[in-house]
């Protein structure tokens, strides 16, 4: 498993010309410059790490590669996160922002998760830890939020279902939370920061 994090700070809108027609069209649909930059950076990372591998999609729209590799992308704030593995994987990054953790949590968290959340002194931090773990798990399972968020419990770093184990790991840095989920418990210790100059 390899995890990469890149900053949109040095991304030029002109880099869109380096991408394929589909990614350029997607970039143009965004109105805000930072949204365009996140889309461009995700495209540059995809091109750099996947090369010419054919990208396929499952019935829920989750992409995977014809050569047997799996990848997942998430972005928030100034960062784009890219996860690459030889097995199913899901990732999520969220920049801290104010949310009513109790009210929002009740729409996505199980009763046990809510009980955990409400006992934490750092309720906002606990909220984003649970939120990113849940999203990474659902993405790893290949269903995303086509499935009820309350159907999985992420209090533990392992979720078991139908004889399969899903492992999760969370990193916190600055005002961001990152969670990654995989069917293999082979997480790297650190996420590698990669500069834009390495991608163009």
Describe what you observe in this structure.
The protein is of the alpha+beta class. It has one domain: Ribosomal Protein L22, Chain A (Alpha-Beta Complex). Helices cover 31% and strands 28% of the residues. It has five helices and ten strands, in the order E-H-H-E-E-E-E-E-H-H-H-E-E-E-E. It has helices at residues 21-29, 33-50, 101-108, 111-119, 123-140, and strands at residues 2-7, 55-57, 63-65, 70-76, 79-85, 89-95, 158-161, 164-173, 176-182, 192-193. The strands form three sheets. The chain has a four-stranded mixed beta sheet with strand order 4-5-1-10, with helices on one face. A hairpin with a 2-residue loop joins strand 8 and strand 9 (176-182). The longest helix has 18 residues, at 33-50. The mean pLDDT is 94.
Give the SSE string: EHHEEEEEHHHEEEE
Widest beta sheet: strand line-up: 4-5-1-10
Q: Kindly, what is the distance between the CA atoms of the first and last residues, rounded to a whole number of angstroms? A: 23 Å
Q: What is the average of the pLDDT values?
A: 94
CATH class: Alpha Beta
Task: Quickly count the helices.
Answer: 5
Number of domains: 1
Give the overall form: globular
Overall radius of gyration: 17 Å
Low-confidence stretches: none
Structural class: alpha+beta
CATH superfamily descriptor: 4'-phosphopantetheinyl transferase domain
Tell me about the biggest sheet?
A: 4 strands, mixed
CATH architecture descriptor text: Alpha-Beta Complex
User: Percent of residues in beta strands?
Assistant: 25-35%
Task: State the total count of DSSP E strands.
Answer: 10
């Amino acid at each position: 498993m390899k995890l990469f994090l890149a900053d949109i700070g040095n991304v030029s809108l002109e880099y869109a010309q380096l991408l394929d027609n589909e990614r350029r069209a997607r970039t143009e649909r965004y109105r805000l410059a930072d949204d365009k930059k996140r889309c461009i950076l995700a495209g540059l990372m995809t091109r750099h790490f996947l090369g010419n591998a054919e990208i396929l999609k499952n019935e829920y729209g989750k992409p995977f590669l014809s050569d047997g590799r799996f990848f997942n992308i998430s972005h928030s704030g100034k960062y784009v996160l890219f996860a690459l593995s030889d097995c199913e994987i899901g990732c999520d990054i969220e920049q801290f922002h104010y949310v009513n953790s109790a009210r929002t949590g009740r729409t996505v968290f199980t009763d046990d998760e809510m009980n955990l959340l409400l006992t934490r002194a750092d309720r906002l931090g606990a909220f984003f830890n649970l939120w990113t773990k849940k999203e990474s798990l659902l993405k790893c399972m290949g269903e995303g939020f086509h499935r009820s968020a309350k159907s999985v419990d992420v209090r533990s770093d392992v979720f078991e279902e139908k004889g399969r184990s899903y492992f999760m790991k969370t990193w916190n840095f600055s005002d961001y939370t990152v969670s990654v989920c995989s069917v293999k418990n082979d997480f790297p210790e650190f996420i590698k920061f990669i500069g834009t100059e390495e991608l163009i």
